[in-house]
Specification:
The complex is a heterodimer of chains A (238) and B (253). By secondary structure, chain A is mainly α. Helices cover 82% and strands 0% of the residues of chain A. In chain A, helix 3 runs antiparallel to helix 8. The radius of gyration of chain A is 22 Å and the shape is elongated. Chain A starts with a helix and ends with a helix. Chain B is α/β, with parallel strands linked by helices. Chain B has two domains: 135 residues, P-loop containing nucleotide triphosphate hydrolases (Rossmann fold), CATH 3.40.50.300; 65 residues, no CATH class. In chain B, strands 6-7-8-3-9-10 form a six-stranded mixed beta sheet, sandwiched between helices. In chain B, strands 2-1-4-5 form a four-stranded antiparallel beta sheet, with helices on one face. In chain B, helix 6 crosses helix 7. The longest helix of chain B has 18 residues. Chain B is globular, with a radius of gyration of 18 Å. Classes of the chains: A mainly alpha (238), B alpha/beta (253). The structure holds adenosine-5'-triphosphate (ATP) and magnesium ion (MG).
């Protein structure tokens, strides 16, 4: 509803010529730019590199965060080692690390991956730790009375119980991964969707800037949808 | 009632917890209690008198602060499939089907799947139709029957029931009582039931232990020698009335 109102206002403003198109292109121009984005060149130069960076960095974050989160919920010693670090880094804005990442990793893929991983891994450890700590005591104790070992309890009770919420947290952190990627690409680089947006801004191709932003939003929406669909298939018992 | 060595013995058990603000909570003061093989014992008492704590100690999920617990003559040092436990809450595994829930304990002990046994328990619980459903599809009564079946299928020597019918409505509760009576009757298992419902305790058990609070201690016990097999018709008999009155005259409630 609000979307329709906003769209209407947008159409009205550009129709009446209230704002210079350099600041606010018309919806029509934006749409035209958007469909121009769907060319092979754009896909090769921007979409593919961005997607590969996000996928790689996100998977790597999950591979690191999953065991750390699980261990921190199962073992008091590891919890005391890991949690303070993760909780503290939550207060460090990822954006502040971008210059450092450029210094360390240059302006290529490694820098993007580093920014995403910095932003995603730490909170994900905390989330997965909380998910795997939330198992009702009755379920674990039922396992104990049947003679399950600690490892069996983790495998047969803790993980199946936590999987749906872990999946939900992965869905949310995949969204973060996209935003951090765009951030990293805006600041430095020579390919990717964020790079495209910043280039368009430099050449005052405002319609392209709008189209790029729209494209980023749709990518996030799409990722979210993929997670939801797979999740509802995987976890029918919820 | 055969007079054998006790199956389960609490010897001067006490249990203290550290509560909020490091305050010492004496959940159980000094309890000694023997339970015979094949006996059905109910434990009644006010909220917070240590009923759940007592069951958890016997199940081996917690250790007493002092005293000893002997099961089959051996000290209890941890949980074991020989001592089954049914919780107050419905402790179903939501990601397993009804069939898999019931079979859970079997898959731990031996890798051989005993389909016949699983089917038998599905049938006993009336859950055959729901075998491939997830627990979310079950009513409270069905879930609690499933929990009982999951505990009983591994053939424990004793079963601890912590208010298994506490959350059920009256009609479902009566059905569950009958189901429990039938299962206990068929398997001749030793059972310890914690309940708030004194009528339920009198109707189901051979002996009723009454606890008092602060600290948890035994304030009395009464044998219920109603004829077996038990049924709800007995609720209206003078024998029932007499035992019931004795219990409420002792209980501080
Ligand atoms: N893990 C624990 N930590 C601290 N205090 C506890 C713990 N478990 C039980 N207690 C305390 O011990 C006392 C006995 O608790 P318990 O749960 O055994 O009572 P109960 O008879 O089962 O009560 P209810 O009828 O309400 O279920 C209570 O005062 C309770 O607050
Ligand atoms: Mg209790």
């Amino acid at each position: 509803m609000t979307a329709i109102v906003l769209l209407f206002v947008w159409v009205l403003i550009s129709f009446l010529g209230l704002v210079d198109p350099i600041f606010l292109p018309s919806p029509y121009e934006t749409l035209k730019s958007f469909f121009r984005l769907l060319s092979l060149q754009f896909i090769q130069e921007n979409l593919v590199p961005s997607t590969i960076r996000v996928l790689f960095a996100f998977l790597l974050s999950v591979v690191i965060a999953f065991p750390l989160g699980l261990l921190s919920s199962q073992n008091a010693f590891i919890r005391k080692m890991i949690l303070p670090i993760c909780s503290f880094t939550r207060y460090l804005p990822v954006a502040a690390f971008v210059p450092l990442c450029i210094l360390w990793f240059g302006i290529d893929d490694a820098q993007k991956v580093a920014v995403i991983m910095l932003g995603v891994t730490f909170p994900l450890v905390l989330l997965i730790g909380a998910d795997t700590a939330s198992v009702p005591a009755e379920l674990i104790e039922t396992g104990r009375t049947f003679g399950l070992t600690k490892a069996q309890i983790v495998r047969r009770i803790v993980l199946p119980w936590a999987m749906p919420t872990i999946w939900e947290d992965l869905r949310i952190s995949a969204g973060w991964a996209w935003s951090y990627l765009i951030l990293a690409e805006l600041v430095a680089g020579n390919s990717g969707i964020g790079y495209f947006v910043v280039q368009s801004q430099r050449y005052l191709e405002t319609a392209n800037v709008f189209a790029g932003i729209l494209f980023i939003g749709l990518l996030g929406l799409f990722t979210d949808l993929v997670f939801r669909v797979i999740g509802s298939r995987l976890f029918r018992w919820v | 009632m055969t007079m054998e060595l006790p199956l389960l013995e609490f010897k001067n058990i006490s249990k203290e917890f550290v509560g909020s603000g490091n305050r010492q909570i004496v959940a159980i003061g000094d309890i000694s209690l023997s339970i015979r093989q094949g006996e059905f014992v109910s434990i009644v008492g006010p909220s917070g008198c240590g009923k759940t704590t007592l069951l958890r100690l016997a199940a081996g999920l917690d250790t007493p602060s002092s005293g000893r617990i002997l099961f089959d003559g051996e000290p209890v040092i941890g949980p074991s499939p020989e001592r089954g436990l049914v919780f107050q809450a419905y402790a179903a595994f939501p990601w397993l089907t009804v069939r898999e829930n019931i079979a859970f304990g079997l898959t731990v002990a031996n890798s051989v799947r005993n389909d016949e046994l699983i089917n038998l328990w599905l049938q006993k619980t009336g859950l055959t139709e729901f075998a491939n459903h997830y627990p979310k599809a079950l009513s409270g009564g069905m879930r609690q029957r499933m929990a009982l079946a999951r505990t009983m299928i591994v053939a424990p020597k004793i079963v601890f029931l912590d208010e298994p019918m506490g959350a059920l409505d009256q009609r479902t509760r009566e059905k569950m009582q009958l189901f429990l009576l039938q299962v206990v009757w068929e398997t001749n298992i030793t059972a310890v039931l914690v309940t708030h419902d004194i009528r339920e305790a009198v109707l189901l058990s051979d002996r009723i232990i009454m606890l008092g609070a602060r600290p948890g201690r035994i304030v009395g016990e009464i044998e219920s020698n109603l004829a077996k097999p038990r049924s709800h018709h007995q609720l209206a008999t003078p024998e029932f009335e007499s035992i019931y009155n004795q219990v409420i005259s002792i209980l501080p409630e």
